[in-house]
Amino acid sequence: LLSHTRDDVRCWVIRMITDHATPEGMKQWIPVLPTLATVAEIETSPLVLSQLASTLRRLVQSKTEKAVCISLLQSLLNNKYWNDDNHGPLLLWWAIEEILSQSNLQFDCSLFGVQKDSTTPNIELKRFLLERISRRFMSAETQAGYLSQARLLEYCSSHPAPNSWLNSVLK
Predict the structure, then answer these.
(1) Measured between alpha carbons, how far is residue 164 from residues 98, 99, 119, 137 in Å?
(2) How far does CA 52 lie from the centroid of its chain?
(3) pTM, entire model
(4) What is the rounded distance in angstroms from the CA atom of residue 41 to the CA atom of residue 82?
(5) What does the pLDDT profile of the chain (171 residues) look like in tens digits?
(6) What is the rounded CA–CA span in Å between residue 57 and residue 99?
(7) From CA 43, how far away is CA 153, in angstroms rounded?
(8) Beta strands in 55-135 (DSSP E)
């Protein structure tokens, strides 16, 4: 059903998988979860992408295996169809914010897939998210937040066109 022709059916299937997203409730779905990342890579419907972003947040909240969540996040970040959705980036942000909250503000910036040339997928989406991540780090006013901000600045500075990335982080 994850490949059904109707996007509303695909949404409901994804939603059903995580409707009872507790560690106990997710046990039966663990074999299916990696499939969600595959779906996220090729999905063209903003409706389904939004559901996948919401699902990612639920998975993080339920303490689902970190590798599954990171794989889904990477697939969502690289899906070019986010450009057709005005609200999807905020759903992604809320999922990332949950990851930050549960990991003591530790975040692997390499998830953003900034490439050494100008072919970075979804560059505007990633700048939008980096700005919010940066604000989250600084608003924590903790040593972990400041160290994460320093790593984020270092990461953005290593890009071949660092000013475009740094401008997002330093807003």
Answers:
(1) 26, 25, 14, 19
(2) 10
(3) 0.81
(4) 11
(5) 888 999 999 999 999 887 766 667 667 777 888 899 999 999 999 899 999 999 898 888 877 777 888 889 888 988 888 776 778 889 989 988 888 888 777 777 766 655 545 556 677 777 788 888 888 888 888 998 889 888 888 877 776 666 766 777 776
(6) 8
(7) 32
(8) none
